[in-house]
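One example copied in:
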Amino acid sequence: MALQIGDQAPDFKLFSSELKEVSLSDYKGRKLVIHFFPLAFTGVCTAQLCTMRDSFGYYEGMNADVVGISVDSPFTLAKFKEDQNYQFPLLSDFNKEESQAYGAFYEDFAFNMKGISKRAAFVINEEGKVIHAEVLEDAGNMPDFDAIKRSIEA
């Protein structure tokens, strides 16, 4: 089941595209926008993260950080980040544990692929509580970026 507003966000320890371990606790005292996405280099995923890239200054000004998480390897994510000039970390949930913990996980995806992150957006407040939770069943849909911004401003 997906996390709900008011839930304590599960801590995670994932490797970034820079091969550094990153955890939720690294962001304590700041808001964190977490974008789960199915696969690097695909159309809607690229659009989702490019929207965040293009709005990055807004989030910085609101004491908020951004991360993207997928089941891609850190090496794939490094190339994706480089190609798209993302300013925020892309984290590899290669073992699929965090996608499941956040309720953002497809057991079965397109083309008989198993175990892919769902498109989802969470905002975690300074104390580690979920203040925005959106898990999309249809990978062709985009998160509600206006709702994400409203939760950051609240």
About this structure: The first strand starts at residue 13 and ends at 16. The chain has a mean pLDDT of 92.
